[in-house]
């Protein structure tokens, strides 16, 4: 599974860690995040994330 980075603030979504503060379990691929998931740091939506190189 790929890591994704927020274009705005640099937060990295790591599928191995998930986003437990927002009820996203470890092992959840970025593609499988709910459409209303937002960056936990700056609040932008998934469209503003890019694949980590
Ligand atoms: Zn962000």
Helix content: under 10%
What composes the largest sheet? 3 strands, antiparallel
Task: Let me know the number of strands.
Answer: 3
Average pLDDT score: 97
What is the SS-derived class?
mainly beta
What is the first-to-last residue Cα distance? Answer: 13 Å
Pfam families: Rubredoxin
Protein name: Rubredoxin
Organism: Acetobacterium tundrae
InterPro entries: Rubredoxin, Rubredoxin-like_dom, Rubredoxin_dom, Rubredoxin_ET, Rubredoxin_Fe_BS
Attribute tags:
single chain; 53 residues; mainly beta; three-stranded antiparallel β-sheet; 3 strands; 0% helix; globular; binds zinc ion
List strands and helices in order, with pairings.
Blueprint: E1 4-6, E2 12-13, E3 49-51
Antiparallel strand pairs: 1-2, 1-3
Zinc ion binds next to loops.
What would you note in describing this structure?
By secondary structure, the chain is mainly β. The chain contains no helices and 3 strands. It is globular, with a radius of gyration of 10 Å. The mean pLDDT is 97. Zinc ion is lined by residues 6, 8-9, 11, 39, 41-42, 44. This is Rubredoxin. Pfam families: Rubredoxin (PF00301).
């Amino acid at each position: 599974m790929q890591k994704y980075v927020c274009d705005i603030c640099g937060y990295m979504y790591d599928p191995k860690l998930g986003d437990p503060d927002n009820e996203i379990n470890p092992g959840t691929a970025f593609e499988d995040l709910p459409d209303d998931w937002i960056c936990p740091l700056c609040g932008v939506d998934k469209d503003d994330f890019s694949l980590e190189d």
